[in-house]
Specification:
Layout: H1 2-22, E1 48-55, E2 59-67, E3 74-83, E4 88-93, E5 99-105, H2 106-111, E6 114-122, E7 127-129
Antiparallel strand pairs: 1-2, 2-5, 3-4, 3-6, 6-7
């Protein structure tokens, strides 16, 4: 009797599997996506027409002017003064600045020449430095 029950149970399982595998699947797929991705690259433009100057006197004046960068979201400009002995001085300016000047003891620019550059700084952290100006010395 046990053998008959086992055979009937096995036949029942096989019949169930045959019915289940013959039914169609009920899955559906969509080709649309709710996520859109935009990739854009931005080129940061350095300031143009950077012009340096040095007025020599007992208290000399270093200065630079430039044309503002056309890059959007400018957060500021960084003026860099390069001394011929390797010393580098920087000055942080606001996003609308187009000129800078500072006084310096004439001795410092008599024994060393200076060059200037201006760096565009953006709100998203990208920067671009202009070419250096010619050298100036008293």
């Amino acid at each position: 009797m046990t053998r008959i029950r086992r055979i009937l149970a096995l036949l029942g399982i096989l019949a169930g599997l045959m019915v289940a595998t013959s039914l169609p699947a009920s899955a559906s797929f969509s080709a649309s996506s709710a996520v859109s991705t935009t990739i854009s690259s931005l080129v940061v433009d350095a300031p143009t027409n950077v012009v340096g100057n040095l007025n020599c006197a007992p208290t000399s004046t270093m200065s630079a002017t430039w044309t503002a960068s056309t890059t959007p979201r400018i957060s500021g400009y960084l003026v860099t003064v390069y001394f011929s002995d390797g010393f580098v001085q920087t000055v942080q300016l606001g996003p609308t600045a187009t000129s800078w000047s500072a006084t310096i003891v004439e001795y410092n620019v008599t024994i060393h020449s200076v060059q200037y550059s201006v760096t565009t700084q953006t709100a998203f952290g990208w920067i671009k430095e202009s070419a250096r100006t010619a050298s100036f010395q008293c």
